[in-house]
Amino acid sequence: MFRVTVGKVANAMRGTVGITSSRVVAVRYSHGAEESAEDFDKRYEKYFNRDGIDGWEIRKGMNDLLGMDLVPSPKIIESGLRACRRVNDIALAIRWMEGCKDKCGDQKATLYPYLLERVTPTLKELGIPTIEELGYDKPELALKSVFDM
């Protein structure tokens, strides 16, 4: 509804005042001040450190983070792992680490070891095994390639 109204006002202004469409688009899609990286990290750390957070809310926060175009910082990963431990959901903690590994994309060889190095003390403290310790980094029932025979 708002978009239609703004479009009609823009068309009317374009004819009378001579405003170009680039100015109208800039006004139409602008929204609030940008959040700094530190504020973003603090917001998600605070979200995962809330008292009384349940498994559904943890999953929602993790899903929101993994849906963004970013790799979570080690501080956010640690607070997510601690939240998983508070609700005693080790499977969610392992999936969280697996999702963070997948978010590294083509930088997996350089970025994931850095994340793992920073998060390993927390994993040891909480008693959560890494993906590599569980063997989830290699397919279990994969067939050998015909080119390797």
Automatic annotation (TrEMBL):
Keywords: Heme, Iron, Membrane, Metal-binding, Mitochondrion, Mitochondrion inner membrane, Transit peptide. Component of the cytochrome c oxidase (complex IV, CIV), a multisubunit enzyme composed of a catalytic core of 3 subunits and several supernumerary subunits. The complex exists as a monomer or a dimer and forms supercomplexes (SCs) in the inner mitochondrial membrane with ubiquinol-cytochrome c oxidoreductase (cytochrome b-c1 complex, complex III, CIII). Belongs to the cytochrome c oxidase subunit 5A family. It comes from the Eukaryota. InterPro entries: Cyt_c_oxidase_su5A/6 (IPR003204), Cyt_c_oxidase_su5A/6_sf (IPR036545). Its main location: mitochondrion. It comes from Drosophila busckii. GO terms for biological process: mitochondrial electron transport, cytochrome c to oxygen. GO terms for molecular function: metal ion binding. Component of the cytochrome c oxidase, the last enzyme in the mitochondrial electron transport chain which drives oxidative phosphorylation. The respiratory chain contains 3 multisubunit complexes succinate dehydrogenase (complex II, CII), ubiquinol-cytochrome c oxidoreductase (cytochrome b-c1 complex, complex III, CIII) and cytochrome c oxidase (complex IV, CIV), that cooperate to transfer electrons derived from NADH and succinate to molecular oxygen, creating an electrochemical gradient over the inner membrane that drives transmembrane transport and the ATP synthase. It is found in: Mitochondrion inner membrane. This is Cytochrome c oxidase subunit 5A, mitochondrial.
